[in-house]
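2024-03-11 09:14:02 INFO receiving multi-entity request
2024-03-11 09:14:02 INFO entity count = two
2024-03-11 09:14:03 INFO echoing inputs for audit
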Amino acid sequence: MKLRRIHDWLWEIPREGGMKVPGRVYSDGPPAPDDPALAQVANVAHLPGIVKWSLAMPDIHWGYGFPIGGVAAVDLERGAISPGGVGYDINCGVRVISTRLEAERVLERRHEVTAELYRAIPTGVGASAAIPRLSPREMDEVLSRGARWGASRGYAAASDDLDHCEEGGCLAGADPSLVSERARQRGADQVGTLGSGNHFLEVDRVAEVYDEAVAAAYGLRQGEVAIQIHSGSRGLGYQVCDEALADLTPQMARYGPDYAALPDPQLACAPIESPAGRRYLGAMQAAANFAWANRQVMTGLAVQALCRSLGASDGDVGARLLYDVCHNVAKVEEHVVDGRPRRLLVHRKGATRAFGPGDPRVPAAYRAVGQPVLIPGDMGRYSYVLAGTATAMEETFGSSCHGAGRLLSRHQAMKLARGRSIHRELLDRGIEVISRGKKTLAEEMSDAYKDVARVVGVVASAGLSRRVARLDPMGVIKG
Amino acid sequence: MPGASTAATARRERARVRRGSPARAAADDPPEALAARGGGADDGGVRYELPQPYQELSHTADTGIAAEGATREEALARLVLALGALLAGGGSVTSDAEETVVAAGGADLAQTAVAALREVLFRFATRHVVPGACEVLRLSPGRAELRVAFGRFDPARHREGADVKAVTYHRARFEPVPGGWRAQVILDV
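2024-03-11 09:21:47 INFO inference complete, emitting structure
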């Protein structure tokens, strides 16, 4: 793979063969030319209608078709929509809930707090029944209304939660009728459940504030407690993606030579305006709403659990949703490209929207400082709250990284964990972790991930986001 | 048809006798080591029970499984049971109900195998059941018909089970190898 240095933090894969645009990779040094994720960046550059660049954030790693950490914006009229550019876990995302609790108060009762959260929020394989199974009518409402459904049922941190969600916690255009019976079956008893893998719920301490003014705007104070939730659309989103891939893969050639010549079947796609493209878009938007409802319900359950475990009132806890971001999604957005506004479909697969100051799509409370960008790390180290920038708007369609990125495969992590007690190691570092099995802890241990501080360092140095605060875990629940 | 029943029983016995131990090869084991644990050269229509030999493949964020067989049907049956082994996390599976699983779609055997495993995974996701035995009744590009015995997923016994969420087309393979066939898929976990 040929690479050309643009500046200290940015490398270009020159356009060649069927690539329609160059690839661009944000990195703190030359990326390894044999990294298969780079080939995927080049493959994505073949997408019909792609605009400017196929982008890779510094947490890029090998995915299916698209790399994880990839961004591709396509022209809304001429471009293609790709389920692989969204990922299986549609609207997998992160939210942070700030509180007015002093960290010391939670540290004293860390085990009780974590255990109560673990009891309240089902985790792990087949997690279900956090709330009663949805009726078909309720499922339609969830798919249409997203986080609004959860908030309307009383699951909330505060009354202004919806103002602090990307897109207000609901994608317009969602069409529940396009979500199959099978997908509905998979999701009917999963609203309010965490899932497994790299999903987690953490009780964090605001350990360091880098930008006092922005942190104040976000309501973050050093030494206070925050709750962080990472989860998505559970089985429903997976089924929507599965069915779209099965629908699109066999009929690619009918859309013309650009589609027939795509270098990887996992890049299955269709013109956005085609019936198949419209079907996926409407179903994907509905699945995104399901994910928002899921995180909203977990928010309510988590705040209640925190109050119970501390014997505190809602007022004592002072919970408030700081923000909610999605990092697996395709959204219709307007961006300025070569000096003129264009309507694009921006695929972010393992990438976070990072709109800068002044953008009207940023909630009014944060508009002067830019959108909160929530970047989880691994369970043994730390996570970051960043702010979006004007540079991100110019270079990456308003996008930034989404996490640490894996360093080891799950298999390699298991090997490395042999003979060790990851649970004990974390306890020794002051972190209480509760999970269903030991295997998850081994697969998700810190050694398996890049240091998120390094990833954040790249996006900060490249100007794609600004550091606001660091969150250190005190309690973690995992699937 | 006592004759047919006897023949079926004999086939089942042969399959049980061939149960591999250890059942799982390491990701870096050579293919011949895996094949040696597989053994057998039967035609399709044989019922295979857990545990069966398979190989776990490294993939950065997820995991893959590969299985070999003397026939295409054996390779697919073992691939289905490899999925079962991952879901059960090494815990035993008590099969208590059999059903026919039909998978349609896919331009080739690899895509058909993906479709078959997706059918099995859907049952896991919605009914919390794990495949404990599998017989491939028919297999051709575009269609697979399997007889699968499922057992209940037990959160205690299967606590180390992987939460497999999707069977992907990414690097899906179904191809002849010396002595038989090899099938592999990457799973999203």
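2024-03-11 09:21:48 INFO post-check: Residues 275-310 of chain A form the longest helix (36 residues).
2024-03-11 09:21:48 INFO post-check: Residues 93-241+273-478 of chain A form a domain with the tRNA-splicing ligase RtcB fold (CATH 3.90.1860.10).
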